[in-house]
Amino acid sequence: MKTAITSTGNHLDSEFDLRFGRAGWFCILDEDTGKTSFIRNEQINASHGAGTRTVEKMMELGVGKVISGDFGPKAKELLEKFNIQMIILEDEQLTIKEIIKKIQN
Amino acid sequence: MPRRKRLRKIVAPPGFKGYRPFGNTSRNSGFIELLYEEYEAIKLADYDLLNHQEAADLMGVSRPTFARIYESARRKIARAFVETKEIRTFYGNAWMNENWYRCLDCSAKFTIPLNLPEKTCPLCKSVHVELIA
Ligand SMILES: [Zn+2]
Predict the structure, then answer these.
(1) Chain B residue with minimal CA distance to A88?
(2) Which residue of A39, B11, B78, B87 is most buried, as measured by CB atoms within 10 A?
(3) Which of A88, A99, A102 lies closest to B109 in CB terms?
(4) Do B38 and B82 sit in the same domain of this protein?
(5) pLDDT range class, residue B94, cuts 50, 70, 90
(6) What is the interface pTM, i.e. ipTM, of the complex?
């Protein structure tokens, strides 16, 4: 199972990004192997449709869970439709490493 | 734009993605789309043996609407049998009434997708979760 975490930067010490469609980066965690990779969000400057295209990206990557600070109505509807679990964390001070630690505990 | 269909409440999604005929004497002739609410209608009426009013109440629809969903489901299944088609299940216009949960241990908020049976926190694995409106 792959989990996507919205991130402000491309390393494990980067802070969590509260935005979904306009997050800077996505950290893709493979929960089985513990491996992580970072993917730049190409939709960050899109004028519209960022949420929808980001959901499509998640599908493409085979993500089953998304951790972010908020999801727009369109993204919510699509993620729910595609059975992708949404997780909302409201603490923006967290780093990606700290979030991964919570999952792996 | 077509009018947005009202969502129907279902208790549980089907536990399969589809059915495929075997030993076909004719070539593969495609598939029919069975909606989650149609699966639920068949289950409530023909497996749980509820009457249409009870089933309609459970799904939060009127009795005529339930009858329409149920009829559509039966016709699709009959067509799949007779025309040797696969049956594939689709999300359709269903919704689960339990949507967002909060973990009482780590305060994460989360959804539980239809294909995930367990109600545990996806972050800290706690079972202390509550439904939020
Ligand atoms: Zn938790």
Answers:
(1) B109
(2) B87
(3) A88
(4) yes
(5) low
(6) 0.89
